Amino acid sequence: MVEEKALGVKLVSIADLARLASSMVSMGGSVYIVHFVQAGKHYYGLLATFRDYYKYYGVPLLYYVETQEPLRGKYLAIKVDESGEKVESIDSVRAGWICIPVVNLERKPDFVEVA
After folding, report:
1. Measured distance CA(90)–CA(74) in Å, rounded
2. What is the pTM of this model?
3. Which of 12, 53, 55, 65 is the most exposed place for a label (fewest CB within 10 A)?
4. Which of 73-77's residues contact partners 24+ apart within 8 Å by CB, and which partners?
């Protein structure tokens, strides 16, 4: 049994999750979004580490969004240009967009805590 858990940080919208993920992609990281269902709700999240928090080497975090319905695509895509920000759930990658894969989990991992 896992005693230490990743702390859940609930975001306001799927666009917030896409913005956060795209910022991590731009830093050269390998980024993906996890999806699981719990109590009939869909959770989409991004695992990250808040480094060097006081005496800890890092605090594991799950930035997540809770939805009533599943997203329809295999990727969460974001594009920002002079016309503004666009966030879509899509089935294949698009040129000019940052596309983050959505990985469907069978169940919520034991080390993750969501409200």
Report:
1. 6
2. 0.88
3. 55
4. 73/102, 74/101, 74/102, 75/99, 75/100, 75/101, 75/102, 76/14, 76/17, 76/18, 76/21, 76/33, 76/44, 76/100, 76/102, 77/18
**Rg for the chain, CA atoms, rounded:** 15
List the chain pLDDT tens, one digit each, 115 residues. 556 788 899 999 999 999 999 998 877 778 999 999 999 999 999 998 876 666 667 788 999 999 999 999 999 999 999 999 999 999 999 999 999 999 999 999 988 888 7
Residue 55 DSSP class:
T
Sequence-distant (≥ 6) Cβ neighbours of residue 15 within 8 angstroms:
78, 85, 87
- What is the residue type of 93? V
Q: Sheet harboring 84-90: ordered strands across?
A: 7-10, 58-67, 41-51, 33-38, 98-104, 75-81, 84-90
User: What counts of helices (H) and strands (E) characterise the chain?
Assistant: 1, 7
How far apart CA 46 and CA 34 sit, in angstroms, is: 6
